[in-house]
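[Discussion] Sanity-checking designs against the backbone

I'm trying to build intuition for which residues belong where. Below is a structure token string of 103 positions. I'd appreciate it if someone posts a full sequence so I can compare it with mine line by line.
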């Protein structure tokens, strides 16, 4: 058991990330996706380790960086609920819109 669950669209995020990276660096794609999954597993033990972004969402979500990506999750949910995995350089407005669409 992983201790976390994914929003249906977070599954899509996790499929698209390695596909995009693999175009230029197949080995790098494997490393990045492994670090993201390792990050999610680590959050199960320490769910409040991430930081809040109240300007992006009023929901009690937290954000944790894994490489160039941000894991967005609900620390109070059991199992830990991963709402999204988003590239960290995305516009804050885009991130806020993505999260509004995943309520």
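Best answer:
Here's mine. Compare freely.
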């Amino acid at each position: 058991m992983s201790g976390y669950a994914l929003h249906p669209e977070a599954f899509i995020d996790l499929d698209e990330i390695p596909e995009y990276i693999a175009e230029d660096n197949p080995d790098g794609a494997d490393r990045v996706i492994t670090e993201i999954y390792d990050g999610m597993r680590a959050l199960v033990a320490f769910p409040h380790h991430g930081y809040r972004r109240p300007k992006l969402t009023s929901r009690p979500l937290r954000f944790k960086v894994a490489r160039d990506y941000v894991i967005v999750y609900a620390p109070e949910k059991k199992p830990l609920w991963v709402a999204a995995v988003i590239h960290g350089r995305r516009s804050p407005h885009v991130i806020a819109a993505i999260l509004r669409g995943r309520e």
